[in-house]
Amino acid sequence: MQRTLWKKYEFIAGVDLSWSFRKDSWVALAKRKGFLYEFCDLFALKDFLDFERFFAAHPSLLLAIDAPLRIPNSDGNRKPERELAPLLRKAGWGILPISRSFILSRFPLLFEFHKLLEKHGFQVVPVPEPSKARVVIEVFASLSAIALCADLKIVRQRGEVFIEELLPCLKEETGSFFAKNLETYMRPLLLERQKGRDVVDALLCLYTAWVATVCPERIRIFGNPEEGFIVVPLSKFSPTWLIP
Predict the structure, then answer these.
(1) Does any domain span residue 32?
(2) Which residue has the higher pLDDT, 159 or 26?
(3) Is residue 6 a part of any domain in this protein?
(4) In a domain, 232, yes or no
(5) pTM reported for the whole predicted model
(6) Phi and psi dihedrals of 77, rounded to 5?
(7) What is the domain range of residue 170?
(8) Structural domain tally of the chain?
(9) Which residues contact 87 (CB under 8 A, 6 or more apart)?
(10) 5 is a domain residue
(11) How far apart are CA 14 and CA 16, in angstroms?
């Protein structure tokens, strides 16, 4: 059920960004074909030089990244986390506090990644804009998984049960054209437990990018552009507490 695109980005991508260079970041990529998007690749990036090459090869690109992109507050919590925390608590889930001091202590490379995005002309926006060639949105992969499949047991085990539980939901939401090659790519990567979780999260970010680009009426935004935001894709499987 793909609809009119807000912006005909040549590529959309989901990125599970690593918290250090000791571990790979994973990218799930889809390419536009007419008015549709087709999943086309899944690969690891080891460092910023790999990201430089990736950005250079994809001048028309929407990125959905599982990492905070705007962090105006020195301490405490951003607006999206303040809005999400009580909802997630009721569902038996949680969310990390996000502030500049927290990121400096846990993920200092993120600020260098922000500079890399700016260098390559990415605009941080809540939804794709028709005048931008490169756009990046912030997502929360765990919440995207909850929105795709409300069963928290499945969400917690998403690397182990992806093929049996999450893939059917993904196919139903995006259509067989988008997802037809997914299983071939995913099966060998899911054999390693930790790698499998990272790969699934990259794919969940890509799914969020797909919804934001193709069906923008089906996204919910927590926070705002000034205080930070998280884009959540809504589906027919989403829990009622997530539907505004």
Answers:
(1) yes
(2) 26
(3) no
(4) yes
(5) 0.92
(6) -135, 150
(7) 11-242
(8) 1
(9) 241, 242
(10) no
(11) 7
